[in-house]
Amino acid sequence: QQTAPFDYVIFGGTGDLTMRKLLPALYNQLRIGHVPEDARIIGTARSELSCDEYRERAREALEHFLPPAHKDAALIERFLKKVHYITLDGTKSDHNWDDLHALLEQSPADRIRVFYFSTAPQLFEAISENLHRFNFITPQSRVVLEKPIGTDSASARAINEGVSRFFKEEQIFRIDHYLGKETVQDIIALRFANPVFNAVWSAEHIQSIQITAAETVGVEGRAAYYDTSGALRDMIQNHLLQVLSLCAMEAPADLGADSVRDAKVKVLKALRPIPADKVAQETLRAQYVAGEMAGSKVPGYLEELGTESATETYAVMRAYVDTPRWKDVPFYIRTAKRSHKKVSEVVVTFKKTASSLFGKDGEHNRLVIRLQPDEGFGLALNIKNPSAADFSLQHGAMDGRFAPADGSLIPDSYERLMLDAVRGYPALFIRRDEVEAAWAWVEPTLQTWAANKVPMTHYPAGSYGPEEARKFIASTGDAWHEDM
Ligand code: BG6
């Protein structure tokens, strides 16, 4: 439903994320009637641009990134009227803050203000300080922090401390766009709304869980950022550990922000530490080399970068959640750039039924939750082979889709989250203790990799990944979903 009127101030307003995701998300929410007519979106960045020039960029972005079914020339015009721009370096106290003031003053004093920091995290504290210095932070204000929150525990703590000098925790919305994916929220629905899964969701019946996010894209124009990050920081510390916590958490008392986040943080804190001397055994890192994708040659990571680098573009970690429910069940967390296909999925492999009825055990039951693309779920079962005279078994499958019943497209993850920040609903945002617990768990691996104590493996762009990944998962008795 429609939110209260708001002013959305985006720092990093000319950036890739704003153009690719944030503006299209707000446009689409306007399209479906969730954005009130007098809402305003104020882009800010250092570039000297007029409001008209900024609107022109926004128009191009919408033309480029909106799905064809959502493009509507009249609506784009209506949306652009809500868009404003101020040239502003948020880290400098002697910059155009007066212009921002003049614009925000046109709204009633109690209007909801959302400050969205889509900038490098090192700038978060300085921008917050200026917002405070010039009295922009009202009781109705919130701040959205884009990832990454730091590069390790210490920097994450420093950023959290820095921002919390000026904003209260309940005003701070740390975004992880995976939580905004409808299909990721479906993990909660599938688990807790269905006794057929809920009743068997433990080590007693589950052999392992694979969580994969593979992409066909390389580092695109983001090599400068990516090379300081790598796959583990870019995808595992945040998105995939969030997916893991939803898969592994105990039932929250309700779907309120604190209950869900309490349940998730318990999982993160129960992750079995991987000490330095186990990192080589429990993790795998790799970099793509030149290969072929869709019939064209693509360069390797180092060629794209133009320099030497020990940054991984592929990472696997084997995690254990040390709670009674998950006793010794491996969770395989895997992410890749330049993979042979784009797929994010959770694969739950159930233990075989030990039964003498059929002569031999059937295959594993397997639940595949397809987060994207082809959003839906598949369940592999054993059924009787209808053409066999004896009682031999064969594979049977059930398939379901997460698509909305009215045939519309699944909303983009930023849509829900951007308006949840307006509504002041933080359940799908990361609490401070979650960020810090996730960093604490990945840190020994990051350090051991940085010290070059784990060999870097390689895979051709467009391939399924390094050969070593097969041995890695086989060492605990499993196989990757695509090899099954
Ligand atoms: C971002 C990462 O957080 O997630 C990118 O920084 C990655 O490197 C992206 O491409 C993946 O998001 P999605 O929604 O396409 O899986």
From TrEMBL:
Key words, A-Z: Carbohydrate metabolism, Glucose metabolism, NADP, Oxidoreductase
Top-level EC class: oxidoreductase
Keyword Oxidoreductase in annotation: yes
Residue positions of the active site: H239 (proton acceptor)
Residues annotated as binding substrate: H177, K181, E215, D234, K337, K342
Entry binding sites for NADP(+): R46, K147
Domain of life the protein comes from: Bacteria
SUPFAM superfamilies reported for this sequence: Glyceraldehyde-3-phosphate dehydrogenase-like, C-terminal domain, NAD(P)-binding Rossmann-fold domains
Glucose-6-phosphate dehydrogenase NAD-binding domain segment(s): 9-185
Pfam families tied to this protein: G6PD_C, G6PD_N
Biological function: Catalyzes the oxidation of glucose 6-phosphate to 6-phosphogluconolactone.
PANTHER family recorded: GLUCOSE-6-PHOSPHATE 1-DEHYDROGENASE, GLUCOSE-6-PHOSPHATE 1-DEHYDROGENASE G6PD
Name this protein carries in UniProt: Glucose-6-phosphate 1-dehydrogenase
Organism (species): Bombella pollinis
Lineage, broadest ranks: Bacteria, Pseudomonadati, Pseudomonadota, Alphaproteobacteria, Acetobacterales
